[in-house]
Amino acid sequence: MLPLRLVRTSRPGALTRRALVACAAGAVGFLLLSALSYAVAHPGRPETAAARLLWCAVPLAALAHLAAATVRADPSVRPREGLDAVGVGPARLPLLAAVTAGLCCAAGCALALPAFVHLRGGLGGVLDAVPLAGAAGELLGAGRPLPRAAVLTLLAVPPLAAAAASALATRLRAVPSVVPTGSPAGLPDPAAVLPHRAPPVPTGLPWGVTVTAVGLVVETHAADRLAASAGSGGVPLPASLDGLGPGVVGGWLVIALGLVLAGPGLVHLCGALLALGRPGVLRLLSGRALREEAPRVGRPLGVLCAVAAGALGSARLHGAAPGAGEAAAGPLTVLGAAVVLVCAVAAALGSAAEFRAARAAATAGLLQLGVSRRMLRAAAALRVVVLLGVLAPLTWLVAELATAPLAR
Predict the structure, then answer these.
(1) Distances (CA, A) of 291 to 22, 195, 266, 272, 275
(2) What interhelical angle do 373-407 and 360-368 show, nearest 10?
(3) Which residues form a coiled coil (predicted)?
(4) What is the C-alpha separation between 108 and 8, in angstroms, rounded?
(5) Which of 89, 99, 161, 253 has the fewest C-beta atoms under 10 angstroms from its C-beta?
(6) Residue 136 included in any domain
(7) Can you tell me the distance from the alpha carbon of 348 to that of 118, in angstroms, rounded to the nearest whole number?
(8) Prediction pTM value
């Protein structure tokens, strides 16, 4: 009952984020059911069915990322005296966060199941007169019964993934930040606002580069196998990305994972570039903020880079496929892309708000020390420009390398 009470008494912003998580979970459940219906309706195409199921891992990962970002920004699952009084201390907060996220996603999946069956045309009776009944019967493999155990198993995946991500985010929420301390005169200590100790360097950049390289190797090997099986010098690109095979899809997913792992290190690198040489006040403030908050904002930016690289690569392959000019993206592809994009943008906006809240104390201290608001806004703009200048070319390069084995 405690998670339900926390959800009911949450602020409108938190309720909006939870509603977005529930909608995303419903969309992911719908995509998983559509992959199951395709496998049941086309038993002679196991590779295409496996590729469709692998593609569902992309919106599923985006959902887990959004659920974790929502929990980090949710004040109801933070340590406080009221929760301690009912026996929910810091050690049990991950369980509370997992249950809350799981309930939201379970509600979304519970709504996705009747919507899927209705569009498939399986409800029957009076509901056949409801608009859109059986409207997507051909697309969703109508006429073949779906295994109930498989349906329940697939619908349990989004709540479990979101619950696991939320519990992990709550456990790892404690990120070191700069909190200025007050002096007897009411002014903050300058050493607390701008400490002399350099922020720790994230260790994920080498791992991210390695994982990205492994994904490129896997994708290149899978593309060579496709070209050899086709008996031509290149890969036979289908009008839909579902026909690329599990190997290529798996390679793309590994590349995206590498970008996410490298995100904090890249943000820290941007801060280090700003602090090169003998920086002035503007560069010093911008670089210090990026290096301090790299663990907090690096992963969401890595997810955005992975989404942008996937969009660029998909657009290039769609243009290179035979007859792609006449073939439009299917509704399931549009749904999956919308889920990934909305989750990535919402998580990035939530992390930006969390970044601003985490630096509120330091900003107040700098204002008391005489730093103008104009300089603080200029420092924020400089951070954005440097991040775009470093991450945008890198995203384009990864997209080109990922599509080169397929577009040759």
Answers:
(1) 33, 12, 10, 7, 10
(2) 140
(3) none
(4) 17
(5) 89
(6) yes
(7) 34
(8) 0.77
Only one residue has tokens 């696991």, namely 164
Please state, in angstroms and rounded to a whole number, the distance separating the CA atoms of residues 132 and 263.
43
> For residue 287, what are the domain limits?
199-408
Domain co-membership, 155 together with 210: no
Same domain, 248 and 356: yes
Segment among 275-284, 319-328, 353-362 with least mean pLDDT: 319-328
In-domain check, residue 180: no
Distance CA 235, CA 199 (A): 47
**Residue in the block written with tokens 């906006």:** 349
> Of 169, 184, 219, at which residue does a domain stop?
169
The CA angle 57-406-312, to the nearest 5 degrees, is 60
Do 358 and 401 belong to one domain?
yes
Number of domains in the chain: 2
Q: Does 377 lie in the same domain as 281? A: yes
- Residue 200: which residues within 8 A CB-CB, separation 6 or more? 176
What mean pLDDT is predicted for residues 78-86? Answer: 54
Class of residue 130 by CB neighbours under 10 A (exposed 0-12, middle 13-18, buried 19+): exposed
For the record, the structure tokens of 224 come out as: 């060579």
Structure tokens at 330: 């299917």
**Interval 358-394: pLDDT, tens:** 778 888 888 888 888 888 888 889 989 999 999 999 9
In a domain, 181, yes or no: no
Print burial letters for 140-169: b (CB count within 10 Å at least 16), e (below 16).
Answer: bbbeeebeeeebeebbebbbebbbbbbbbb
Which residue, chain included where needed, has tokens 């891992």? 57
- The answer to whether 355 touches 301, Cβ cutoff 8 Å, is no
Report if residue 247 sits inside a domain: yes
